[in-house]
Amino acid sequence: MRKILSITFTLLILIGMAPLLGACQTTAGAGQDISAGGHALTNSAEKHAP
Length: 50
What we know:
- By secondary structure, the chain is mostly helical.
- The protein contains one helix and no strands.
- It is rod-shaped.
- The mean pLDDT is 82.
């Protein structure tokens, strides 16, 4: 009985953490996109400077 409860508890924890792990990837991807946009703006400004 104790083994079944342990497995059930572990599965619930893993299922509960799955969205959090996905959110980490999404946040990292958004940060990279914002950084790339900033670099593009900087490069464009430097290229068009008088």
